[in-house]
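Researcher: Let's walk through a ligand-bound prediction step by step. First, I give you the protein sequence. Second, the SMILES string for pyridoxal-5'-phosphate. Third, you return the three-dimensional complex as structure tokens. Ready?
Model: Ready.
Researcher: Here are steps one and two:
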Amino acid sequence: MIQDDLKDLYQEMIVDHSRHPRNCRKIEHPTCAAAGNNPLCGDQLTLYVQLEGDRIRDLSFEGKGCAISMASASMMTEYLKNRTKQEALNHFEKFHQLVTEDGSASTLSDSDLELLGKLRVFSGVSEFPSRVKCASLAWHTLVNALRGNGEIATTESGTEVVASGQGDHS
Amino acid sequence: MSIHPNIKKIRADFPILETSVRGKPLIYLDNAATTQKPRQVIERIQKYYQEENANIHRGVHYLSERATIAYENTRKKVQKFIGAESPKEIVFTRGTTEGINLVAQTFGRLRVKAGDQILISEMEHHSNIVPWQLLCEQVGATLNVIPFDFKGELMEAEFDRQIERYAENIKLIALTHVSNALGTINPVERLIQKAHAEEIPVLLDGAQAVPHLPVDVKKLDCDFYVFSAHKIYGPTGVGVLYAKKQWLEEMPPYQGGGDMISSVTFKKTTYNEVPYKFEAGTPNIEGVIALEAALDYVSSLGLEKIAAHEMALLKQLEQAVQADAKLKEFVRPVGTAKEKAAVYSFTLGDIHPHDAGTILDRMGIAVRGGHHCAQPVMDHFGIPGTLRASFAVYNTPEEVNALVTGLHQVLEVFK
Ligand SMILES: Cc1ncc(COP(=O)(O)O)c(C=O)c1O
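Model: Step three, the predicted complex:
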């Protein structure tokens, strides 16, 4: 028997996607690609994007890491396929809010939540500040790929630095 | 090997143990990262600020004298605790890390030249790797690394070979006394003898040793010994560097400032005597003073009894895993040296240690997941990290049982 409260973060969907990641493959001639890493968990991934005009026709990743980062990458690739670049960037904002804002204080509207659909399973992450980086790694990497800066996304710099669980002491 | 007879009373000494975590009682098994503090230590800090606060070594007034006496008493206490010859051999630092950096930048800069070597091991904490890399870069020396075997034991034959082959070049050997990631207790007394036979000085990183085993620096005959107060029930921001007096006399100062000088003019400054030469500026006075309370606390419980208590819990956990078909299938201990401290480092199937750690946290259980600042150790085993339960004197057999239940929950989530 699993205790109920353990399920809100590691929901079956997250476990399933981490065990059997979707779109986990290389695209041979991607329009753009980017690599990302999260030194805290040692998560590493490479993201491949195939654009057709402004639309994401194919999206895939390769990498290794903790369940949260793998599931997030897997679900993101499913979720964003056939959306436009601009939509992807907008959804990134919403997703970021979802995983950083405490549920009760969340500023996401009902329509935002509806928009996020299945991705709402990641809302439990907000209770674990040290794991926010894991959930958002794939998204940061995608943004880097789309913005065309070939730099490696790292959750250790830029906007993603959260207040706790940074270093790896002792 | 037995549970400390006063365990109930001991637990009552640690106010934080009453914390609840997400509605569950705290089970704190991350003691190798830092230990919790007993009331005696917390109250000592408060007493200092309420009754003794003043700068030390400077005022001729009442409070300053009291603070100075308390500060210097800790130095004497530390000296006795680790068996140093003189309190002059005890330098207060910010922690193990600063102690190692101090030695690298003083002793190292003085004695290590281009073409020389520093010998360390593959099981070092990053704080006993990076300061030496910095030094090597500065002077053009190289870092020579002794590997460990599949059990996590240092390959002593390789150690012997290196010190024989490079006796002329190796200017210092820096080794961990007890590994934080593997729990291995290194045969340091023997290694030091061998090093000294080649006239090579030895620094020991005692961060994980001092809280768990009696340490006698004179008997060990080490040249340098460093540890942190916060891992032995004391405050953060305080550490100890023991160094043989001859080295301290020879070493140039680390930082310049107040307290470390005997006279300053713009033409020439002369330095204070040891150990003050290495203690520039106003130190963490309340922290140092509270370290005395921590050491008194440990002595009152008996270090040997503490060690026996922790080993009893380790054995209980090891046996529980062995006796449990499911855990036995998934749990792989990392570090199975014959001589081991009460650290249980392991992997759980292919479950990432941070995922397991987060699930255990949900149950109020604090363990460490990750590379434990010893990435080379993880690379050795080809894993991103381990889970680590590390015990202290206030842990109980019930908490070990709770961890076992917790591990089942983790496996259940990822089944
Ligand atoms: C073996 C070892 N060496 C060095 C350190 C560094 O200690 P500190 O961070 O207190 O300087 C630690 C713990 O963090 C350790 O376990």
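Researcher: And what stands out?
Model: The pocket of pyridoxal-5'-phosphate is lined by residues A 169-170; B 95-97, 125, 127-128, 176, 180, 205, 207-208, 228 (CB under 6 Å). Chain A touches chain B at residues 1-3, 5-7, 9-10, 15, 19, 40-42, 64-68, 128, 131, 134, 168-170 (CB under 8 Å).
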